[in-house]
Amino acid sequence: MRAARAWNLNWPLRLMIACFAVGYVLYGKRWVEPDQSKAVGLYTCSIAFLVLALVPKGTRLWVAVCAALAVPVLVDISIDVFQLLR
Q1: Out of 3, 34, 51, 56, which residue is the most buried by the measure of CB atoms under 10 Å away?
Q2: Whole-angstrom Cα distance, residue 33 to residue 42?
Q3: Which helix (H) or strand (E) holds 33?
């Protein structure tokens, strides 16, 4: 059986991923549009990239990918719950 791959990115790649996430938000400019669903999608996508940039070295690859997918889903659910309670 093969050993699980590790998520090992050096700091320049992590910085590039974080800059891409911030640039994606700035390029989208969804905070000025009245349609809030597009803004939520933009923010959750950028959060997924930021999670990938913040995952520590040595973490298994499948854990990093699952965290990058789970965090935006949880953020999206919490935004929907917050809007229902408002």
Answers
A1: 51
A2: 12
A3: none
pTM above 0.90, yes or no: no
Rounded Cα–Cα distance for residues 18 and 33 (Å): 24
pLDDT at 32 > cutoff 80: no
CB 40 within 8 A of CB 76: yes
Is-contact 47 22, C-beta < 8 A?
no
Q: To which H or E segment does residue 79 belong?
A: helix 61-85
Helical (H) or strand (E) element with 59: strand 59-60
**Are 7 and 66 in contact, with CB atoms under 8 Å apart?**
no
Residue carrying structure tokens 């965290």: 67
Residues 6+ apart with CB under 8 A from 16: none
